[in-house]
Amino acid sequence: MRRFSLPISTVLLAAELFLLLGCMPTGERKSDGNRLKTAGGLAYIMHHDEPGTPAELGDVLVLQLKYSTADTVLFDSRLNRRPVYIQCTNPSFGGGLEEGLRLLSIGDTATFFLSADSVFNRMFRQPLPKGIRSGDELRFELVVQDVRNEERDLQMYLRNQSIVDPPRPSGLYVIGQGKGRGDVVRDGATVTLHYVATLVDGTEFDNTRKRNDPFVFIKGSTKLIDGLEEGVGLLRQGDQARLVIPSYLAFAEKGNYAGLVPPFSTVVYDVEVVEVK
Question: Does the model's pTM come out above 0.70?
Protein backbone atom coordinates (compact mmCIF):
# COMPACT_ATOMS: atom_id res chain seq x y z
CA MET A 1 0.00 0.00 0.00
CA ARG A 2 1.50 3.33 -0.97
CA ARG A 3 1.48 6.22 1.45
CA PHE A 4 -0.09 9.53 0.51
CA SER A 5 1.06 12.70 2.27
CA LEU A 6 -1.49 15.42 2.95
CA PRO A 7 -0.37 18.96 3.73
CA ILE A 8 0.17 19.25 7.48
CA SER A 9 -2.58 21.85 7.83
CA THR A 10 -5.05 19.46 6.22
CA VAL A 11 -4.03 16.58 8.47
CA LEU A 12 -4.31 18.70 11.61
CA LEU A 13 -7.68 20.10 10.60
CA ALA A 14 -9.02 16.67 9.80
CA ALA A 15 -7.74 15.26 13.07
CA GLU A 16 -9.22 18.11 15.11
CA LEU A 17 -12.57 17.90 13.35
CA PHE A 18 -12.62 14.15 13.77
CA LEU A 19 -12.54 14.63 17.56
CA LEU A 20 -15.89 16.37 17.32
CA LEU A 21 -17.72 13.29 16.02
CA GLY A 22 -20.61 11.86 17.99
CA CYS A 23 -22.29 8.49 18.38
CA MET A 24 -25.78 7.15 17.83
CA PRO A 25 -27.62 3.90 18.50
CA THR A 26 -27.48 1.56 15.54
CA GLY A 27 -30.65 -0.48 15.74
CA GLU A 28 -30.76 -3.64 13.60
CA ARG A 29 -27.69 -4.94 11.84
CA LYS A 30 -28.07 -6.09 8.24
CA SER A 31 -25.66 -8.34 6.38
CA ASP A 32 -23.98 -7.34 3.09
CA GLY A 33 -21.77 -10.27 2.10
CA ASN A 34 -18.91 -10.37 4.60
CA ARG A 35 -19.95 -6.94 5.81
CA LEU A 36 -22.72 -5.99 8.18
CA LYS A 37 -24.73 -2.80 8.02
CA THR A 38 -26.21 -0.63 10.72
CA ALA A 39 -29.82 0.50 10.44
CA GLY A 40 -28.54 3.78 9.00
CA GLY A 41 -26.56 2.00 6.27
CA LEU A 42 -23.01 2.09 7.65
CA ALA A 43 -21.08 -0.96 6.39
CA TYR A 44 -18.62 -2.57 8.79
CA ILE A 45 -16.74 -5.72 9.72
CA MET A 46 -16.27 -6.60 13.38
CA HIS A 47 -12.94 -8.43 13.47
CA HIS A 48 -12.83 -9.00 17.21
CA ASP A 49 -15.77 -8.48 19.55
CA GLU A 50 -14.83 -8.57 23.22
CA PRO A 51 -17.59 -9.11 25.75
CA GLY A 52 -18.30 -5.81 27.43
CA THR A 53 -20.63 -2.84 27.58
CA PRO A 54 -20.60 -0.82 24.34
CA ALA A 55 -19.83 2.88 24.47
CA GLU A 56 -22.63 5.22 25.48
CA LEU A 57 -23.29 8.90 24.91
CA GLY A 58 -20.75 10.92 26.90
CA ASP A 59 -18.13 8.16 26.86
CA VAL A 60 -14.71 8.81 25.36
CA LEU A 61 -13.23 6.08 23.17
CA VAL A 62 -9.45 5.78 23.21
CA LEU A 63 -8.52 4.38 19.81
CA GLN A 64 -5.73 3.40 17.52
CA LEU A 65 -7.12 4.64 14.22
CA LYS A 66 -6.11 4.36 10.59
CA TYR A 67 -8.12 5.45 7.59
CA SER A 68 -7.23 4.91 3.95
CA THR A 69 -8.45 4.28 0.42
CA ALA A 70 -7.60 1.02 -1.35
CA ASP A 71 -4.02 2.21 -1.91
CA THR A 72 -3.59 5.44 0.08
CA VAL A 73 -3.03 5.85 3.83
CA LEU A 74 -4.47 9.19 4.90
CA PHE A 75 -3.99 8.96 8.67
CA ASP A 76 -2.45 6.46 11.09
CA SER A 77 -2.39 7.27 14.81
CA ARG A 78 0.43 4.77 15.38
CA LEU A 79 2.79 7.06 13.48
CA ASN A 80 2.07 9.76 16.11
CA ARG A 81 2.65 7.24 18.91
CA ARG A 82 -0.47 8.36 20.68
CA PRO A 83 -4.09 7.28 20.42
CA VAL A 84 -7.07 9.26 19.18
CA TYR A 85 -9.79 10.31 21.63
CA ILE A 86 -13.37 10.55 20.38
CA GLN A 87 -16.24 11.58 22.63
CA CYS A 88 -19.63 10.07 21.94
CA THR A 89 -22.11 12.86 21.33
CA ASN A 90 -25.13 13.23 19.08
CA PRO A 91 -24.84 12.01 15.46
CA SER A 92 -23.74 14.28 12.65
CA PHE A 93 -25.59 12.43 9.86
CA GLY A 94 -27.22 9.08 9.21
CA GLY A 95 -24.89 6.38 7.93
CA GLY A 96 -21.79 8.13 9.31
CA LEU A 97 -18.95 6.64 11.30
CA GLU A 98 -20.72 7.67 14.50
CA GLU A 99 -23.23 4.86 14.01
CA GLY A 100 -20.51 2.26 14.40
CA LEU A 101 -18.84 3.69 17.47
CA ARG A 102 -21.73 2.70 19.72
CA LEU A 103 -21.06 -0.94 18.78
CA LEU A 104 -17.61 -0.86 20.34
CA SER A 105 -16.24 -1.81 23.76
CA ILE A 106 -12.73 -2.19 25.17
CA GLY A 107 -10.62 -4.61 23.13
CA ASP A 108 -12.79 -4.55 20.00
CA THR A 109 -11.31 -4.19 16.53
CA ALA A 110 -13.43 -3.21 13.54
CA THR A 111 -13.34 -1.71 10.07
CA PHE A 112 -15.96 0.80 8.88
CA PHE A 113 -16.51 1.73 5.23
CA LEU A 114 -17.59 5.21 4.11
CA SER A 115 -17.49 7.20 0.91
CA ALA A 116 -14.72 9.76 0.63
CA ASP A 117 -17.31 12.40 -0.31
CA SER A 118 -19.20 11.89 2.95
CA VAL A 119 -16.04 11.85 5.06
CA PHE A 120 -14.49 15.02 3.68
CA ASN A 121 -17.59 17.01 2.74
CA ARG A 122 -19.82 16.10 5.68
CA MET A 123 -17.49 15.01 8.51
CA PHE A 124 -14.37 17.11 7.93
CA ARG A 125 -16.24 19.83 5.98
CA GLN A 126 -13.46 20.36 3.47
CA PRO A 127 -12.90 19.52 -0.23
CA LEU A 128 -11.53 16.18 -1.33
CA PRO A 129 -7.72 16.34 -1.18
CA LYS A 130 -5.61 15.86 -4.27
CA GLY A 131 -5.39 12.20 -5.22
CA ILE A 132 -8.74 11.25 -3.66
CA ARG A 133 -11.55 10.84 -6.18
CA SER A 134 -15.27 11.32 -5.72
CA GLY A 135 -16.79 7.91 -5.06
CA ASP A 136 -13.62 6.45 -3.49
CA GLU A 137 -14.31 4.24 -0.47
CA LEU A 138 -12.47 4.96 2.78
CA ARG A 139 -11.68 2.24 5.30
CA PHE A 140 -11.59 3.26 8.96
CA GLU A 141 -9.70 0.63 10.99
CA LEU A 142 -10.19 1.00 14.75
CA VAL A 143 -8.74 -0.73 17.80
CA VAL A 144 -10.43 0.25 21.08
CA GLN A 145 -7.86 0.61 23.86
CA ASP A 146 -10.17 2.10 26.48
CA VAL A 147 -13.60 3.60 27.05
CA ARG A 148 -13.71 6.43 29.59
CA ASN A 149 -16.33 8.72 31.04
CA GLU A 150 -15.16 11.98 32.62
CA GLU A 151 -18.28 12.53 34.73
CA ARG A 152 -18.14 9.03 36.21
CA ASP A 153 -14.42 9.42 36.95
CA LEU A 154 -15.04 12.81 38.58
CA GLN A 155 -17.83 11.49 40.81
CA MET A 156 -15.67 8.54 41.86
CA TYR A 157 -12.84 10.93 42.73
CA LEU A 158 -15.15 13.12 44.81
CA ARG A 159 -16.43 10.07 46.70
CA ASN A 160 -12.94 8.68 47.30
CA GLN A 161 -11.73 12.07 48.57
CA SER A 162 -14.88 12.55 50.69
CA ILE A 163 -15.51 15.87 48.96
CA VAL A 164 -19.04 17.05 49.64
CA ASP A 165 -18.58 20.73 48.77
CA PRO A 166 -20.82 21.72 45.87
CA PRO A 167 -19.19 23.04 42.70
CA ARG A 168 -19.31 26.68 41.74
CA PRO A 169 -21.75 27.64 38.95
CA SER A 170 -18.98 27.10 36.39
CA GLY A 171 -18.41 23.51 37.59
CA LEU A 172 -15.15 24.32 39.39
CA TYR A 173 -14.62 22.76 42.83
CA VAL A 174 -12.64 24.84 45.36
CA ILE A 175 -11.69 22.88 48.48
CA GLY A 176 -10.25 24.65 51.55
CA GLN A 177 -8.91 28.18 51.15
CA GLY A 178 -6.76 28.35 54.31
CA LYS A 179 -6.10 31.50 56.32
CA GLY A 180 -4.57 33.95 53.90
CA ARG A 181 -4.36 37.68 54.38
CA GLY A 182 -5.26 40.74 52.37
CA ASP A 183 -7.66 41.01 49.46
CA VAL A 184 -8.39 38.27 46.97
CA VAL A 185 -6.16 38.20 43.90
CA ARG A 186 -7.33 40.82 41.43
CA ASP A 187 -6.58 41.37 37.76
CA GLY A 188 -3.25 43.14 37.31
CA ALA A 189 -1.67 41.63 40.43
CA THR A 190 1.64 39.78 40.09
CA VAL A 191 1.11 36.36 41.66
CA THR A 192 3.69 33.82 42.78
CA LEU A 193 2.10 30.39 42.88
CA HIS A 194 3.23 26.90 43.82
CA TYR A 195 1.13 23.98 42.65
CA VAL A 196 1.01 20.22 42.22
CA ALA A 197 -1.10 19.19 39.22
CA THR A 198 -2.54 15.68 38.81
CA LEU A 199 -5.24 13.73 37.04
CA VAL A 200 -8.08 12.33 39.12
CA ASP A 201 -6.32 8.94 39.20
CA GLY A 202 -3.38 10.59 40.97
CA THR A 203 -1.03 10.76 37.97
CA GLU A 204 1.15 13.83 38.44
CA PHE A 205 1.88 15.91 35.34
CA ASP A 206 3.39 19.09 36.81
CA ASN A 207 4.91 20.15 40.13
CA THR A 208 6.52 23.55 40.72
CA ARG A 209 7.97 22.46 44.06
CA LYS A 210 9.83 19.50 42.60
CA ARG A 211 11.55 21.72 40.09
CA ASN A 212 11.95 24.55 42.65
CA ASP A 213 10.42 27.00 40.20
CA PRO A 214 7.26 28.79 41.36
CA PHE A 215 4.89 29.99 38.70
CA VAL A 216 4.86 33.81 38.48
CA PHE A 217 2.20 35.50 36.38
CA ILE A 218 0.09 38.63 36.10
CA LYS A 219 -3.52 37.86 36.93
CA GLY A 220 -5.78 38.52 33.99
CA SER A 221 -3.04 39.08 31.43
CA THR A 222 -1.40 35.64 31.31
CA LYS A 223 -3.32 32.93 29.51
CA LEU A 224 -4.24 30.34 32.14
CA ILE A 225 -6.74 27.56 31.85
CA ASP A 226 -10.14 28.92 32.83
CA GLY A 227 -10.45 26.87 36.03
CA LEU A 228 -7.08 28.03 37.37
CA GLU A 229 -7.86 31.64 36.45
CA GLU A 230 -11.19 31.46 38.30
CA GLY A 231 -9.82 29.58 41.29
CA VAL A 232 -6.82 31.83 41.92
CA GLY A 233 -9.15 34.84 41.73
CA LEU A 234 -10.91 33.53 44.86
CA LEU A 235 -7.73 33.26 46.95
CA ARG A 236 -5.52 35.57 49.01
CA GLN A 237 -1.81 35.59 49.76
CA GLY A 238 -1.05 32.59 51.96
CA ASP A 239 -4.12 30.61 50.95
CA GLN A 240 -3.87 26.95 50.02
CA ALA A 241 -6.64 25.24 48.11
CA ARG A 242 -7.45 22.28 45.94
CA LEU A 243 -9.00 23.14 42.59
CA VAL A 244 -10.84 20.30 40.84
CA ILE A 245 -11.21 21.46 37.26
CA PRO A 246 -13.42 19.73 34.65
CA SER A 247 -11.92 19.39 31.18
CA TYR A 248 -14.06 22.16 29.67
CA LEU A 249 -12.36 24.56 32.12
CA ALA A 250 -8.95 22.97 31.54
CA PHE A 251 -7.48 21.35 28.42
CA ALA A 252 -10.76 20.29 26.79
CA GLU A 253 -10.65 17.91 23.81
CA LYS A 254 -7.00 18.54 22.97
CA GLY A 255 -5.22 17.67 26.22
CA ASN A 256 -1.80 19.12 26.97
CA TYR A 257 1.62 18.57 28.56
CA ALA A 258 2.87 16.53 25.59
CA GLY A 259 0.14 13.96 26.05
CA LEU A 260 0.41 13.66 29.86
CA VAL A 261 -3.07 15.18 30.14
CA PRO A 262 -5.36 13.20 27.85
CA PRO A 263 -8.27 14.91 26.10
CA PHE A 264 -11.49 15.19 28.12
CA SER A 265 -9.68 14.90 31.48
CA THR A 266 -10.59 16.51 34.79
CA VAL A 267 -7.44 17.89 36.44
CA VAL A 268 -6.63 18.69 40.08
CA TYR A 269 -4.39 21.58 41.17
CA ASP A 270 -3.22 21.81 44.78
CA VAL A 271 -2.20 25.46 44.90
CA GLU A 272 -0.51 27.81 47.37
CA VAL A 273 -0.55 31.57 46.77
CA VAL A 274 2.98 32.44 47.93
CA GLU A 275 2.94 36.15 47.17
CA VAL A 276 0.69 38.80 45.67
CA LYS A 277 2.02 42.17 44.58
Answer: yes
